[in-house]
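Listing S7. Sequence submitted for prediction.
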Amino acid sequence: MTRYLITGAAGMLGQDLQRALAGRDVTALTRADLDITDQDAVTRAVEGYDVVLNAAAYTAVDNAETDEDAAYAINATGTANLARAAAAAGAKFVQYSTDYVFQGNASEPYDEDAPRDPLNAYGRTKAAGEEQALEVHPDGTYVLRTAWLYGAGGPNFAKTMVKLAGSHPEITVVDDQLGQPTYTRDLAEQTVRLLDAEAPAGIYHATNSGECTWFDFAREIFRLSGNDPERVKPTDSASFVRPAARPAYSVLGHRRWAEAGVPEMRPWLEALETAAEDGVLTETW
């Protein structure tokens, strides 16, 4: 029987990975259970497993601008530690990455083979994690780049919008950044499909299909949570400056799914409708 190890198991994606792998031989480790920056601890933890799924990450994008060393320790060094241990154990290694490894100035979806060109500190640390994992375990590393995650298990944009709907008559949301909202339940289930298909290792773009702006996304969240979408007003990025630059265009292409014989993930709006049915669009964290 295949044995699975999940790191970062308490996070939003980690929780959905546990649900997607329910009924299988799974060990779920939280940050308190395993410090992925400790190579010796990681090597001991990974021994005996067939698949290692790394849902642990430093995701505070703005904080990374002034705390890049801490972000690098988790997103790059920690990732390499896990990949190295997986290689030694003969295990597959799944690393979740981000659209932020790209500059965000393209005009068509980024291909999986497009050169990395990160825009900010967070993106640099995630790009380094990809590179190091693929270098130390090239035959067994699966890099799944994703974006705009939301789900049941933690704070995220969708839940924030619902919370604001209950406290603000109107809100403004940027309408000049394009991307792909991705439901963590879909991402977890797609990961399992990829592994079950015995697909080749390498880079895959694991986002729900289609594209929209944050403004479009917010309006649909309002609609599906029973709020008036007309209460969401558009603004531009120049009016909403944050410490870390955000890519203007984060749409990822899905070419490699067809090559692997696995259907790409469903449209983002269909996924959001399912999330609403699942109770994700609530005020509670």
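Caption to Listing S7: primary sequence and predicted structure tokens for the chain studied. The longest helix spans residues 68-89. The radius of gyration is 18 Å.
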